[in-house]
Design goal:
The protein has 312 residues and is of the alpha/beta class. The chain is built from 14 helices and 8 strands. Strands 1-2-3-4-5-6-7-8 form an 8-stranded parallel β-barrel, surrounded by 9 helices. Helix 7 runs parallel beside helix 8.
């Protein structure tokens, strides 16, 4: 009997909801979920959440306090609906400040604890800059698990695995966007998709070198990208694409498997090697910078909204 693709995908990959929409999380029953300023802004469009945000903002000492309070409020509710991790993001403005990232991450964990959510349920989301990776390495030593985001290159992934981070989120769709802009007539379907190729390379490297870091494909543009990565450790998927998968039937083939990876010793890279390799990768350099700017732009919008609500 034919089964929907989402059910089959869940049998081989941990499915994560890329949304702060509580109703979508209830509907699709993902294992994990993630939040960030962009997703919180979406949630703030509903009257119910807008009223709650107003209450949080008025009881906060400043905008930074309000931002973290809102993130933890939403994250705590999400944690009640799922069995796994909730990813919560450190401000993108801190992407090049290791010490500030550490301080903000510890503060978020303390806030979650006050809501009765332990550190074992939280992934602190940090941009995969050299400074962010160093912060994540220290947090992991302290028992705080991390999710390295805005990851576009193999060199970023290698550095994250060497640092012992819990999870990395390679951005499939944004990689595809860059290559389509460069070569609009090229065929980037299925296995030709450079974002899909990037995740496969990272996955095989991690499994082949015995790294325990989880690979979670992110930022999908279409269902085909998801199907091409069936079997990846985790995939974080928007409600729209979760709906497409749930409504589609057919036989889903597993495309990634640890047994397919070639085993060899790891080769850690130092800071100079990391920065040079990233500099040589125009796509990764441009998309990382753009991603930080976009996350910060949404954070500014959220700050403005919270500022209005505090005044109101």
């Amino acid at each position: 009997m034919a089964r929907d693709l989402l059910s089959q995908l869940k049998a081989m990959t941990t499915v994560v909801a890329d949304t702060g929409d509580l109703e979508a999380i209830r509907r699709f029953a993902p294992h994990d979920a993630t939040t960030n300023p962009s997703l919180i802004l979406q949630a703030a469009q509903t009257e119910a959440w807008r009223a709650r945000l107003a209450g949080i903002a008025r009881h906060s000492t400043d905008i930074d306090d309000a931002l973290d309070a809102v993130a933890v409020e939403i994250g705590s509710e999400v944690s009640e609906l799922i069995p796994g991790y909730v990813s919560t993001e450190v401000s993108a403005r801190l992407s090049f400040d290791t010490d500030a990232t550490l301080a903000r991450a510890r503060s978020l964990i303390e806030r979650y604890a006050r809501h009765g959510v332990g550190p074992e349920r939280i992934l602190i989301k940090v941009a995969a800059t050299w400074e962010g990776i160093r912060a994540a390495q220290q947090l992991e030593r302290e028992g705080i698990r991390t999710n390295l985001t805005l990851l576009f290159s193999f060199t970023q992934a290698r550095a994250c695995a060497d640092a012992g981070v819990t999870l990395v989120s390679p951005f499939v769709g944004r990689i595809l966007d860059w290559y389509k802009a460069q070569e609009p007539e090229a065929d980037f379907s299925d296995d030709n998709d450079p974002g899909v190729q990037s995740v496969k390379r990272i996955y095989d490297h991690f499994k082949g070198h015995g790294y325990r870091t989880v690979v979670m494909g992110a930022s999908f543009r279409n269902m085909g990208e998801i199907l091409a990565l069936a079997g990846c450790d985790r995939l974080t998927i928007s409600p729209a694409l979760l709906g497409e998968l749930a409504a589609s039937e057919g036989d889903l083939e597993r495309r990634l498997s640890p047994s397919d990876a070639e085993t060899s010793p790891p080769e850690p890279q130092d800071e100079a090697e990391f920065r040079w390799a990233l500099n040589e990768d125009a796509m990764a350099t441009e998309k990382l910078a753009e991603g930080i700017r976009k996350f910060t732009a949404d954070q500014r919008k959220l700050e403005a909204l919270l500022g209005e609500l505090r005044q109101g």
